[in-house]
Write a structure and sequence with these properties.
The protein is of the alpha+beta class. The chain has two domains: 240 residues, Rossmann fold; 188 residues, Up-down Bundle (Glutathione S-transferase Yfyf (Class Pi), Chain A, domain 2), CATH 1.20.1050. It contains nine helices and 16 strands. The longest helix has 32 residues. The chain is globular, with a radius of gyration of 22 Å.
């Protein structure tokens, strides 16, 4: 069910808007909210699902509330109606910059956009609040842009009404993976998007990976800034390089373990999808193949110290896990993913995501929440059916978007169907079979 409440009269306090977009009931606790698992939930494991989503001043939505159950959610409507905006809102329930990787200020709703030019001065900080079902019970999460910060690009996070420092804590509550049309070029672009894709999968196995990755990236930025400025205290550089070596090896080892697991799991793909082979390419990854982690840490620390002059010139660091690349090959064709057709590249990505979901369901008893934006439209009927059947079998609350409801008709009563129309309510439509 979707509700568009009357115009909000809430004050602009960015913190108070995170717990609930319209009502204070989350402050009273979550125990009063009923939750019934559906038949699609994997036996023996509790579902992980978004049960309620509240948006305030988020993209095209002034205020909106979406209430669903643990089944897959199908959002259909014309292009520009706001389907992807809803998926983006869900994506902010995990660490990172969301599925569009937008700057936080770009997400604020600007009413002037409806009739012409945007007017930044009338934008209000956006907020997203959600109620989650997790294996440990119901959890309330709120996040949004802190409009009072000096840069205007700071993100606030609250969990069960309590403010938390940083976004990394979100990884412990909701494992999210997404595929978007922008990721169709994942294998053709540079290595950074592929690292981000892999890191999001690692979060599902090891939520602390988000904290270690953030610590590594912060130390990397601080060291680069000191080297550019010149005359830095060698002792302080050594402290930063100690952090880089410690966190960097932990990040690289986690990526390596997950890539190995996915490589094995993806060798048995869902029906109709190709089998991808995964490997990591980077200096530190090769070291971990032949050296103990502590020895790699020592070597990495020494490399940072020896390369200070070079790193000052390039404005970064010449070694480390930020240089790693995820390599994917089509097993049956023996071809690198970058050399495959666009359709096969998308199929390989779906195979990796489904392998990850199977591993998560087996290890934790709950599959991740999948955000699949316009994925079904590019699959033939056989692969669509295989994708839907796998999602339902895993008990995953996948959120799928498309312009044509008929693409999802085979899901029938196994999914919650909603239509999205710009400026109007979302209405459930029947697809019972």
């Amino acid at each position: 069910m979707i509700q568009y409440p009357p115009e909000s009269t809430q004050p602009g306090d960015p913190v108070s808007r995170l717990d609930s977009a319209y009502t204070p009931d989350s402050a009273a606790g979550l125990s009063s909210i009923p939750f019934e698992a559906t038949g699609s939930v994997r036996a023996g494991g509790a579902p992980v699902a978004v049960l309620r989503l509240d948006l305030t001043d988020f993209r095209s939505y002034e205020t909106a509330r979406l209430e669903v159950d643990a089944r897959p959610v199908v959002l259909t409507g014309p292009n520009g109606a706001g389907k992807t905006n809803l998926l983006e809102a869900v994506s902010f329930l995990a660490p990172g910059r969301g599925l569009r990787r937008a700057r936080l200020g770009e997400i604020d709703r600007r009413p002037a956009l409806m009739g012409g030019e945007a007017t930044p001065e009338i934008a209000r900080p956006w907020a997203v609040a959600a109620r989650l079902a997790t294996p440990n019970g119901l959890v309330a999460i709120g996040t949004g842009r802190d409009g009072t910060s000096a840069t205007g690009d700071r993100r606030l996070v609250r969990i069960d009404g309590q403010a938390v420092k940083g976004q990394a804590a979100l990884a412990g509550y909701l494992n999210l993976v997404w595929l978007t049309p922008q990721m169709d070029r994942l294998f053709q672009e540079g290595a950074a998007p592929r690292r981000r894709f892999l890191d999001r999968l690692v979060f599902g196995y090891d939520p602390a990976h988000a904290t270690r990755l953030a610590g590594y990236e912060q130390a990397l930025r601080e060291r680069a800034k000191l080297l550019r400025a010149g005359g830095a205290d060698p002792q302080w550089l050594s402290v930063l390089e100690e952090t880089l070596a410690r966190e960097g090896v932990a990040v690289a080892a986690a990526r390596r373990e997950v890539a190995d697991r996915l490589d094995r799991a993806a060798s048995r793909p869902a029906g109709g999808f190709p089998s991808p082979r995964l490997s990591l390419d980077g200096g530190i990854d090769a070291w971990l193949e032949t050296m103990p982690a502590l020895a790699v840490e020592d070597r990495l620390r020494a490399e940072y110290g020896a390369n200070r002059r070079l790193d000052a010139e390039i404005g970064g660091a010449s070694v480390g896990p930020h240089r790693t690349d995820l390599k994917v090959h089509h097993a049956a064709k023996g071809a690198a993913a970058v050399d495959c057709s666009t359709g096969e590249q998308k199929a390989l990505l779906i195979s990796i995501v489904l392998a990850h979901a199977r591993l998560q369901a087996g290890a934790k008893g709950a599959a991740p929440v999948l955000l699949l934006d316009e994925v079904a439209a590019h699959l033939d009927r056989t692969r669509r059916r295989a994708l839907f059947d796998e999602i339902v079998a895993l008990g995953s609350q996948a959120w799928l978007t498309g312009t044509d409801p008929e693409l999802f008709a085979e899901l029938g009563g196994r999914a919650d169907f909603l239509t999205v129309a710009e400026g109007a309510a979302l209405h459930a439509v029947s697809h019972a079979r």
